[in-house]
Specification:
ABC transporter involved in vitamin B12 uptake, BtuC, two-stranded antiparallel sheet, two-stranded antiparallel ribbon, mainly alpha, 11 helices, 72% helix, 4 strands
């Protein structure tokens, strides 16, 4: 039963990575930029829930909704202030700006909350499930995380493929200039993409801190990097790829910790990514894009 337990916990961890990776892959797929401040928006969502629930004593639902609102506004603001003026700049300039925004958010959190670890109270009230006469226990956080990830992916796919704003996102992703000629508000579409990605980051932050109940200004840094790895692993720009990459990454990491070494787990994760990219540079579900010259 231990292997099944490790596997389920890996899927749960991978679901968190997948939710974060969905935000990465949407922003890259549509705006063609890597938002490395995405992981720190996770941290902002965690602190919002912590202040709302533990500090103010409000119900967890209110804390989660407020976290989504705060992170959405933050994501749109970051895009408007930091990224939009660099829309025509080199990718390196955008990358450096993203790293700068990441450090800015971390240092603001350090000034506001200090470097001490906060004890996060789980907002999940779903009871654990015991299987095989109690030999296997699945926590409520695990169940909620896996279900939330699946629902989010299905909703995103439906939204992008069936709705007008989703079709506008696809058009901007294919050709920004042609989308403008068709009357699509490119700035508004990219801003909406950042809003959706940041809202997903808030949900991921709540699930992450509920499953691993601690909170620091650096809480979102490593999960953000691993989620980016998951997005590349699955094929950045592909929503099913981000989902698959996140799940596989979580399973690999958890099994590596259980059967090889907890110290080497991160190295194993990144090594697997390198091997996959050597075999298939576009990722598992990525597609090669030919450019006409």
């Amino acid at each position: 039963m231990s292997f099944i337990s490790y596997l389920i916990n890996g899927i749960s961890l991978g679901s968190i990575y997948a939710i974060i990776a969905l935000g990465y892959t949407m922003v890259y797929g549509i705006a063609k930029m890597l938002n490395f401040a995405h992981g720190d928006i996770i941290m902002v969502g965690g602190y919002t829930v912590f202040i709302t629930v533990s500090g103010m004593g409000l119900p967890p639902v209110v804390g989660i909704l407020l976290a989504v609102v705060v992170c959405t506004i933050l994501g749109v603001t970051v895009e408007r202030v930091a990224y939009r003026p660099l829309r025509s700049a080199s990718p390196l300039a955008v990358l450096i700006t993203a790293i700068g925004v990441s450090y800015l958010l971390q240092n603001i959190a350090l000034l506001a909350f200090g470097a001490n670890t906060k004890s996060f109270t789980s907002v999940v009230s779903v009871p654990a499930i015991k299987l095989a006469d109690g030999a296997l226990t699945i926590s409520g956080e695990t169940l909620v995380t896996i279900i939330a990830c699946i629902v989010i992916m299905v909703c995103l796919l439906t939204f992008i493929n069936k709705s007008k704003p989703g079709q506008a996102m696809l058009a901007v992703s294919e050709d920004r200039d042609a989308a403008t000629l068709m009357g699509i508000n490119v700035n508004g579409t990219i801003g909406m993409t950042f809003a959706i990605g940041s809202a997903l980051a808030a949900i991921a932050g709540v699930l992450l801190c509920s499953a691993y109940p601690s909170l620091t200004p650096y809480t979102g840094a490593m999960p953000g990097i691993k989620a980016f790895v998951a997005a590349v692993f699955g094929g950045i720009g592909s929503i099913p790829g981000a989902f698959l990459g996140g799940i596989l990454l979580g399973i690999i990491e958890n099994l590596a910790k259980a059967y090889i070494s907890s110290q080497l787990a991160d190295a194993i994760v990144f090594s697997v990514l390198i091997i996959v990219l050597l075999v298939k540079p576009t990722g598992i579900m990525g597609r090669k894009i030919s450019e006409k010259v």
